[in-house]
Amino acid sequence: MTILVTGSAGFIGANFVLDWLQRHDEKVVSLDKLTYAGNLRNLESVKDDARHRFVRGDIGDNPLVADLLKEHRPRAVLNFAAESHVDRSIDGPEDFIQTNIVGTFRLLEAVRAYWNPLAEEERRNFRFLHVSTDEVYGSLTPAAPAFCETHRYQPNSPYSASKAASDHLVRAYHHTYGLPVLTTHCSNNYGPYHFPEKLIPLVINNALLGKPLPVYGDGQQIRDWLYVGDHCGAIRRVLEAGRPGETYNIGGNNEKTNVDVVHAICGMLDELRPRPDGKGYRDQIAFIKDRPGHDRRYAIDASRIQRELDWKPRETFDSGIAKTVRWYLDNQAWVQSVTSGAYRDWMDRQYRE
């Protein structure tokens, strides 16, 4: 048996592949375009594993995907491939349209062509699992109920709009063609191998380099933080027992303001890697101009996946952030390898103020 994982060298995809191979003997074929956020070093520990085959390629390359499906005959395709950074989508939305919408469409077409002629039992057991985000639901007021699976789509950035469009395509392929799809909406992930343009790894990296810790606006934006290992466990469970055509929200039950997250990281670093001058890392916090259309609050109601699939997160925010900070302290070589010249140019432009 085999599964095909797209976006396998990115943050969540790589964590899923590593987690899967620790728990299963089932073969993994992984596909990644290796853009700036895709890094083969994320998969270095399994490069010689006979159960894992890596292929560099684009989900929008229909002939390549078709050949992989024909050769390996996977029982499931898990689609992690996406452009995912809101700031970059504001700066240049076209890549998000091409990957998240056009790429998902072409992937679905290749999968449909593969799935249609399968024997009846193989057709029935096959799954296409699409990994999406809570950002498709828009923004919540402070007292509003958390996002449930039936919440109205109200995307507010080019990124979230492109993910919403991909969700609609996946849904349509189930209702029109019968393709057995599953869709998950996760809250903000954090953990090992997170590219340091996102808040948590950015703060850790900048703190250690003695650089400002940029916080948008007043820092009171609220997110539900989900440790990536918990997310991988939820996806495994949805793949195993989720009902085709359904969506499942995955959250960490950890609503925190951005500035509280930054304070927590500073406190851990003060203890684990004190500044040479004896000052606290909070002195490096710099409040900067808010980004356009910045959503105020996300919150996930994960009661459905807990009720129907018996899943809930194992990590609290305190335990997850402790693991994350220690991983970055122990893996500075990885951080240096991904913070290339292109990354530095982006950071300089994005946070110039």
Instruction: List low-pLDDT spans.
Output: none
The first-level CATH class name of the domain at 2-192 and 227-253 and 294-314: Alpha Beta
- Basic shape: globular
C-alpha Rg (nearest Å): 20 Å
CATH superfamily membership of the domain at 2-192 and 227-253 and 294-314? NAD(P)-binding Rossmann-like Domain
Q: Report the helical percentage.
A: 40-55%
> Largest sheet, if any?
7 strands, parallel
What structural category arises from helix and sheet content?
alpha/beta
Quick tags:
single chain, 353 residues, alpha/beta, Rossmann fold, seven-stranded parallel β-sheet, three-stranded mixed β-sheet, 44% helix
Concise synopsis of the structure shown:
This protein has 13 helices and 12 strands. By secondary structure, it is α/β, with parallel strands linked by helices.
Structure description:
This protein has a domain at about 1-190 and about 225-255 and about 295-315: 3-Layer(aba) Sandwich (Rossmann fold), CATH 3.40.50.720. The protein has about 350 residues and is an alpha/beta fold. It has 13 helices and twelve strands. The strands form three sheets. It has a seven-stranded parallel β-sheet with strand order 3-2-1-4-5-6-10, with helices on both faces. The longest helix is centred in the N-terminal third of the chain and has 22 residues, at about 95-115. Helix 2 runs parallel beside helix 4 and helix 7 (about 200-210) crosses helix 9. The protein has helices spanning about 10-25, 60-70, 85-90, 95-115, 120-125, 160-175, 200-210, 230-240, 260-270, 305-310, 315-330, 330-340, 340-350, and strands at about 1-5, 25-30, 50-55, 75-80, 125-135, 180-185, 190, 215, 220-225, 245-250, 255, 285-290.
